[in-house]
Amino acid sequence: MKAITYSAYGDPDVLEVSEVETPKVGPGEVRLAVRAAGVNPVDWKIVAGGLDPLMNIEFPAIPGWDVVGVVEAVGLDVTEVVEGDEVMAYGRKDWVEQGSFAEQMTVPVRTLARKPAALDWEQAAALPLAGLTAYQSLTRMGVAEGTTVLVHGANGGVGSFAVQIAVALGARVIGTASEPNHDRLRSLGAEPVTYGEGLADRVRELAPDGVDVVVDYVGGVLEATLDVLADGGRHASIADGSVAESGGTYMWVRPDAEDLAVLADMVDTGKLRVDVARAFPLEQAADAFRANMDGHTSGKIVVRVSE
Q1: Cα(288)–Cα(286) distance, integer angstroms
Q2: Which architecture, in CATH terms, is 2-127+274-304?
Q3: Measured between alpha carbons, how far is 289 from 101 in angstroms, rounded to an integer?
Q4: Strand, coil or helix: what is 302?
Q5: Which of 84, 111, 98, 86 is closest to 46 using CA atoms?
Q6: What pLDDT digit, counting tens, does each position of 5-34 carry?
Q7: Over its length of 307 residues, how does the chain's per-residue pLDDT go in tens digits?
């Protein structure tokens, strides 16, 4: 099968188009005919070696954890799906080797959810990792009806999902972004504030008694977070491990089929939209990585693998 591989850590230039063996389907696994793969910052950080202290890797490796496709084979003891099902997954495994930037990928069945009918292949590929990150950080912080939430990085890939999910959970949402992105935040249901110097004062103007929950998807905002957090408030970050020293939660997303199914239902009931900024063909995966690294897109970057 055709796949994007790399044989040493480095920048996107190390990625190359290769012919590799079709992966075997182990017990509890499903092999997908991949239609599209989402691009996330963790993908190019892994390629650069940033997760080498945490995860084993087998070279040559195929990058990518977000995937959408059609079930083409099921392993032993798999009853949840059948051949021909259209599914999506945050297909992270315990080691780095076989990813989603390939014509076929195997994933644990415990990571799978149905593809939302309302999304095309490219939109569905953009949802799992970022959507799960947003959903799990919000629910772990107890966001519910009547909660006031501050979202740092509300226009980003994770933040834009967090705004919509928090609104769907019944929360009031304040979101930080640059001023040109404020209209987009309003369309997602947030009250926008400009990030940077004076942020805490601007948030206090909207929420004089402070906010109940802060979720940080950018890092470098702990001081502002603590300044606006109400007594008994809760905060979490995916970008700043030091939050634990201030009573916060530092977290990393987990594959979870049930959570992903909740997101699929939110999409199909019109509570959650998925914006794709640009789709690249598989052969241009390196360019897709560079576009994601640039960080100035409103919407997700995806790789189109097959029709």
Answers
A1: 5
A2: Alpha-Beta Complex (3.90)
A3: 11
A4: strand
A5: 98
A6: 999 999 999 999 999 999 999 999 999 999
A7: 999 999 999 999 999 999 999 999 999 999 999 999 999 999 999 999 999 999 999 999 999 999 999 999 999 999 999 999 999 999 999 999 999 999 999 999 999 999 999 999 999 999 999 999 999 999 999 999 999 999 999 999 999 999 999 999 999 999 999 999 999 999 999 999 999 999 999 999 999 999 999 999 999 999 999 999 999 999 999 999 999 999 999 999 999 999 999 999 999 999 999 999 999 999 999 999 999 998 777 789 999 999 7
Q: Which residue has the tokens 């987009």?
A: 184
Domain locations in the chain? 2-127+274-304, 130-250
Q: List the CATH code of the domain at 130-250.
A: 3.40.50.720
SS3 72: strand
Q: How many residues can be counted in the chain?
A: 307
> What's the chain's Rg over C-alpha atoms?
19
Q: Is 57 exposed, middle or buried (0-12, 13-18, 19+ CB in 10 A)?
A: middle
E strands, 1-55, are 2-5, 16-19, 29-39
In the block, residue with structure tokens 């947003």 = 134
If 0-12 CB within 10 Å is exposed, 13-18 middle and 19+ buried, where does residue 86 land?
A: middle
Tokens encoding 43: 């993908």
Is 47 in contact with 64 (CB distance < 8 Å)?
Answer: no
Nearest Cα to Cα of residue 282 among 40, 55, 37: 37
Separation CA 220–CA 206 (nearest Å): 22
Domains 2-127+274-304 and 130-250 belong to one CATH topology: no
Tell me which amino acid residue 134 is.
A
